[in-house]
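Exercise 3.2. Students should predict the tertiary structure of the chain below and write it as structure tokens, then compare their answer with the key that follows.

Predict this chain's 3D structure.
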Amino acid sequence: MVAGVAVGSATAVLTIVQAWALSSALGNIFETHALGVLTWAVPMLVGAFAGKAILAWLNQWLAQRASAAVKSRLRRDVLAARLVDPVRPEPSTASLVTLLTQGLDALDGYYSKYLPQLLLAVTVPLIIGVAILTSDLTSAIIVAVTLPLIPLFMALVGWTTEARTRKRWRVQTRLAGHFADLVAGLPTLQVFGRARAQAEGLRRSEAAHRRETMGTLRISFLSALVLELLASLSVAIVAVAIGFRVVFHEVDLTTAFFVLILAPEVYLPVRQVGVHYHDAADGMAAAESAFALIEGAEQAPGTSADDGFDKLDQRPSSAPSSVEPVETPATNPSAVGPVETRVIDRSPPPTPLLQITGLTVRYPGAAAPVLDDVDLTARTGELTVITGTSGTGKTTLLYALMGFVSPASGRFLLDGLPADAATRRTRIAWVGQNPGMVNGTIADNVRLGAPDATDDAVRESLRLAGGDSLDPNRGVGDDGEGLSAGERRRVAAARALLRVSRRQADVLVLDEPTAGLDAATETALLDAVASLGTTTIAVSHRPAVIARADHVLHLG
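Answer key:
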């Protein structure tokens, strides 16, 4: 901003030098009919033009640097805000991609055109206005009266443009979401013969997008016409007034030329602000969406450095520090359901590694908590399985453990010490229901768990996960394209097992780990998990997994 003000001020000074040299040369030629004045006027004009060209380049360079820096920072902040609450349904992936790419790229118009012009609209009219005032008071008064009309009409047009641009941004975001959902579901639609039926929906969305875009462009062209007309009429008033005064010898010819050359330069920066406002409107609409996402994450509970859990332990001081091997159903009438733990091994239990006590999770707008006063103890070397019907909060419990959702109350302990979300994540190897995959090879995706793992370590992890037949060098497309659902789970399991085997994590958290796997692969995976001797928590409905469990937490 400071550099922009300096560049704008220097540009205004060079404009005055240019006008003075040109008006002095013309006035002298008309009075003396001699061309000797050109010997100093031409070099001065060439220097002024060259200086303005350099300043214009410098202004654009500063604007592009500012735009790149702001867009990069906004993208980092948006992604950080999204990671604070990665399981929230809004905005959708398609909307987020549109915002981070095309949306924020539109900020180039704001920083390269609108903002520099806004600075010039402040400095240039002020400096040039003072120059006109020192030369001719009457012309300065005319300029001072007519100049505010341009910002007035510009504001009226700008409010209309802003409303239309926001509407267009909503339509564009909806179109992006519709198209992304359609592409994702295209195989299913093709199987049921409904793919062609979506063409009409796409045509309607495209027509809506075209209407909003053309409506915005119409306003842009009309506003440019209005601002040009106002500026032209204002300059004409100055020209007519000074022309009559020259005829009646009230103003000399050199002063008249000087004022006439400078008058358009007063209105030009202000007029250009209105023109470039339309270049910035799309970027400003996208920036508002980005700010809403960032500020929403900052205001979300449990997102501070301490994860908010120092104030979440609302259990009575007399509550037991550990869970008994066998529990009776919860007596809280408002609880979601009874919680019971089934013990397979009656020998003395190992030292508890992970404890969850008094966990309550509420979703906004829900009539009752999805989890109410749930306790869980997972010990080293044991498999704890969470089971229950759909909708009882099994995945929500894992999300709370990972810090993806903020509980209303509860306490998380690792090795007997309170642990915030960041600490828990560093010690957890996670396999979700829909494992994430990146473009590359199977080995690249397995190495996400340990980037420095050797080829032998990758192959061993795949073998433990039941993926002996998977070639580590096999290509994987975006979002796991080219892999079946079962193969994706094997790769994700191998990624988690690699972290555990390299002692980079000591808690294994699995959400339906054997879904889509055959019985032999399921057995091999469970054997591999048991051989690692780590603390394992799994959500599953599969009888084979439940039969291998040391403890079963049933959410009813």
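Discussion points: The two ends are 60 Å apart (CA to CA). The first strand starts at residue 352 and ends at 361.
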